[in-house]
Structure formats: C-alpha cells, structure tokens
Amino acid sequence: MQELLEIIAKGLVDDPSSVRIDRDEPREDGTVVYHIHVAEPDMGRIIGKQGRIAKAIRTIARTAAVRKEEKIMVEID
Fold first, then answer.
1. How far apart are CA 30 and CA 37, in angstroms?
2. pLDDT, tens digit (0-9, with 9 covering 90-100), for 2-19
3. Whole domain around residue 29: which residue ranges?
C-alpha cells in the first residue's frame, strides 16, 4: 500500500524526491493510517481543487485495501 501511495504522489508533484509516506501502527480496530508528506509548494497539487485529488487518492487506496482485507486511512500532512 505504501508503494502505491508513493507512486501516485510522485506522479502528481513537481519535486518527487520530497515525497515521503509514513505508516502508523494499527489502531485497536485494525485501521492503519498512512501519512503523505510532500514539499510545501506541492501541497496544492496533492489536495487539488476542493480536495478532489485527495478524495481520489483515498478512494484508490481504500479500494486496494479492501482487496487485501485491510482497513486504512490516508492523511495528507
């Protein structure tokens, strides 16, 4: 999952070397939280207008997680 998020994020930003994906330990309910970190100038590219790109990234990640029977959340920091 981390690789998928990294590929998506690097494809959207101007500075792919600044992309970093962090993974938290699973919560009590089994949910794993992934944090996407990018350079400040690229933040708008990841979020998109009215958060549409961020929603799309979350949808893709959740769909991939369901196939692996995982629960995930994606946060953009």
1. 23
2. 999 999 999 999 999 999
3. 2-76
